[in-house]
Amino acid sequence: MRVWFFSGRQVLWWALGCLTLGVFLGTNGIALLPVAGGNAHRGISGRTIVIDAGHGGVDPGAVSAAGAIEKEITLQIAKELEYLLKRAAVYVVMVRHGDYDLADSSETNLLNRKRQDLSKRVLIAKEANADLYISIHANYFPSPRWSGAQTFYYEGSAESQHLARTLQTELVRYLGPNNRLARPGDFRVLRDTTMPAAMVEVGFLSNPREAQLLSQESYQKQVAAAIFSGILRYYRE
Ligand SMILES: [Zn+2]
């Protein structure tokens, strides 16, 4: 997605975030998983969560100057998040598991394909009677200057706003400080889904440093761990 917002400081959120959950940042910067067992997965086990890896197939999404492709990054993060959620006994519905979109195979018009693709993603969540919908994208802006993960929700949905805020808090905590806040965004998958839903823009592919990080498996795992932690926190608070 090509959207961006600028916002104030998040020092307080950062401090609050450090007080919650048994999650720690290792000295090498790699985020460790929450301690398993006991009540670690309280509130999340048995839920149905849809993971929407943005784009796919003929639709690559954004592409960095060095050639990092959004559809590949979103899928890798989605698969890692799937792994973490399944370990917590969550029923995971993946919108896609490979490099394809969800439009009819006969449709050749790209705009129509995009419409069909987004409708299908929403339909999958509805048919699964999902408890949560997590959409994963990467951001892009003409200037290489901007960076930082940011989460969006559909305005008017208090639950989605709460979800987006908890996700944003954990993204900042796991990936390093940034000044972005969870913001309303008018995206089809957020507008048309009926369960709490959030879109995570995992960083800017237009920023060379962040694009390089997003291409690394270790960083993709950190992003997934942050989203997982945000979901855990959503169900606890
Ligand atoms: Zn996107």
Question: What's the topology here?
Answer:
Elements: H1 11-19, E1 48-53, H2 70-87, E2 91-94, H3 110-127, E3 132-139, E4 150-153, H4 158-175, E5 183-184, H5 188-191, E6 197-204, H6 208-214, H7 217-236
Parallel strand pairs: 1-2, 1-3, 3-6, 4-5
Antiparallel strand pairs: 4-6
The structure holds zinc ion.
Residues 1, 54-55, 61, 70, 137 line the site of zinc ion (ZN).
Describe the structure.
The chain has a single domain, classed as Aminopeptidase. With 237 residues, it is of the alpha/beta class. The radius of gyration is 17 Å and the shape is globular. 40% of the residues lie in helices and 14% in strands. It has helices spanning 11-19, 70-87, 110-127, 158-175, 188-191, 208-214, 217-236; strands at residues 48-53, 91-94, 132-139, 150-153, 183-184, 197-204. Strand 4, helix 4 and strand 5 form a beta-alpha-beta unit. The model is unreliable at 2-37 (pLDDT under 50). The protein contains 7 helices and 6 strands. Helix 2 (70-87) crosses helix 7 (217-236). Bound molecules: zinc ion. Zinc ion (ZN) binds next to loops.
